[in-house]
């Protein structure tokens, strides 16, 4: 990845991210120890489906499209995420491979978090691990519901695929 690291992570700013609100200060400190603030230019791919899921991002600004490749149609956007969203769920679930691809559609500023370090912290502290896993499972459920609706719409209206690849 060619993101440009900006600085060390301010715990208070990290704790204010919507995904982390209400997380105990000690848990935020663990995440901050594995985080850096990055800027990602528009059109930069964050990851490809099938690649190793070794990080995740808490978006502060910008926009990222989650996509998949449809044979004969190219890339199809499944969901577009922005400020206060989370990019990257696959890091938590073995075999830790990305299920979709992701590309910045606008310049992004985000907290990039090293998932390997977070997985180790989850294993060492069950309370931390439970809290992180519960938050990501709720997020995965919402994404799954959204993706199912999006794919159903695409199946009923294949004209939506025109111009997405």
Low-confidence stretches: none
- The CATH superfamily is known as Jelly Rolls
User: Rough shape?
Assistant: globular
Topology pattern, helix = H, strand = E: EHHEEEEEEHH
What characteristics describe this protein?
Jelly Rolls; 7-stranded antiparallel sheet; 165 residues
Q: Any overview of this molecule?
A:
The chain is of the alpha+beta class and 165 residues long. It has one domain: Jelly Rolls (Sandwich). The protein is 33% helix and 33% strand. Strands 1, 2, 3, 4, 5, 6 and 7 form a 7-stranded antiparallel sheet that branches. Helix 3 crosses helix 4. The longest helix has 31 residues, at 126-156. The mean pLDDT is 89.
What is this entry, summarized?
The protein is of the alpha+beta class and 165 residues long. It is 33% helix and 33% strand.
Element layout with pairings:
Layout: E1 4-7, H1 11-15, H2 25-33, E2 35-40, E3 45-47, E4 55-70, E5 74-82, E6 86-87, E7 101-114, H3 115-124, H4 126-156
Antiparallel strand pairs: 1-2, 2-7, 3-7, 4-5, 4-6, 4-7
């Amino acid at each position: 990845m060619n993101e440009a690291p900006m600085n060390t992570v301010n715990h208070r700013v990290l704790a204010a991210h919507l995904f982390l609100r209400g997380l105990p200060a000690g848990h935020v400190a663990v995440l901050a120890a594995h985080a850096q603030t990055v800027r990602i230019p528009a059109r930069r791919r964050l990851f490809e489906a099938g690649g190793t899921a070794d990080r995740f991002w808490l978006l502060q600004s910008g926009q990222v499209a989650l996509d998949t490749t449809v044979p004969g149609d190219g890339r199809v956007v499944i969901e577009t995420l922005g400020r206060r969203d989370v990019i990257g769920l696959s890091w938590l679930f073995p075999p830790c491979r990305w299920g979709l691809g992701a590309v910045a559609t606008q310049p992004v500023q985000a907290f990039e978090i090293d998932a390997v370090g977070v997985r180790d912290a989850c294993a060492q502290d069950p309370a931390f691990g439970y809290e992180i896993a519960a938050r990501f499972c709720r997020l995965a459920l919402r994404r799954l519901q959204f993706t199912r609706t999006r794919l159903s719409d695409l199946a009923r209206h294949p004209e939506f695929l025109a111009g997405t690849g």
